[in-house]
Design a protein that fits this description.
This protein has about 240 residues and is an alpha/beta fold. It has one domain: Metallo-beta-lactamase, Chain A. The chain is about 20% helix and about 30% strand. It has a 7-stranded mixed β-sheet with strand order 6-5-4-3-2-1-14. Helix 7 links the parallel strand 11 and strand 12. The longest helix has 12 residues. The protein binds zinc ion.
């Protein structure tokens, strides 16, 4: 069974280059999982697939460009007559943050009985693998803004392993996160220099030998990375790009 990975959105919070917020779809027979669903993910998702085909969402951390699109997805799915649950996994604080977002954006909808018409099933992701969206997912702390409860994900499906950094600056957390992965999806917000929350391409390449993984695809691309695309020796995601594992 091969896995199809679609980079629905490959931008960071500022949407440099017009790229949509973080959202990656992992699909195979019996598998349909979004990795992150940022605020601008629903229009990007609708350009490449029917959102009704999404079984579950696994969120890396509590920043709007990674989870802010979930209430909009739920709203759209209600009016698309979804009749099966949507599992939403992520850090322990995710359900409370979603309630805050729902009550701020659509209190008329989310406060009404029978809305949404389907069950949104919360799941706290952690170091022990759990089934979500037809995959087995574990979540591992990475170095980012601590209040956002940042994690990287390891996603097993169809005999393949995908690792995803979420947002992270370089730390000793990244080699074990990526170890053994057929595909490591790594953020590259910056080109030359890390900042306290995000890694740079240069730093990632300096540590490339420590990453015992197969293919690396860069995503969450900021302006400085986009300005140097012709110098980058790794694969770079674009909105709508697919690859098969
Ligand atoms: Zn973040």
């Amino acid at each position: 069974m091969s896995l199809r990975v679609t980079f629905v959105g490959s931008g960071h919070a500022f949407a440099d280059g017009g790229r949509a917020h973080s959202c990656i779809h992992v699909a195979a027979p019996g598998v349909s999982l979004l990795l992150d669903c940022g605020a601008a993910s629903l229009p990007a998702l609708r350009r490449v697939m029917d959102p009704s085909d999404v079984d579950a969402v696994a969120v890396t951390h509590l920043h709007g460009d990674h989870f802010g699109g979930i209430p909009l997805l739920v709203l759209q799915q209600h009016f698309a007559h979804r009749d099966r649950p949507l599992t939403v996994g992520g850090p322990a604080g995710l359900p409370a943050r979603l309630r805050l977002e729902e009550s701020a954006l659509y209190p008329d909808f989310f406060g009404a009985p029978g809305r949404p018409r389907f069950e949104v099933r919360p799941l706290v992701l952690g170091p022990v693998e759990q089934e979500i969206g037809g995959t087995s997912v574990s979540a591992h702390p990475v170095k980012h803004i601590p209040s956002a409860e940042p994690h990287g994900l390891r996603v097993r499906a169809g005999g393949r392993l995908i690792a995803y950094s979420g947002d992270a600056t370089w730390s000793d957390d990244l080699p074990p996160l990526a170890r053994g992965a057929d595909l490591f999806i790594c953020e590259a917000s910056n080109f030359e220099r890390d900042d306290p929350a995000h890694i740079s391409y240069r730093t990632l390449m300096a540590h490339r030998a420590e990453l015992e993984c197969g293919r690396i695809v860069l995503t969450h691309l900021g302006a400085s990375t986009l300005e140097h695309l012709d110098e980058i020796e790794l694969d770079v995601a674009s909105d709508g790009m697919t690859l098969d594992l």
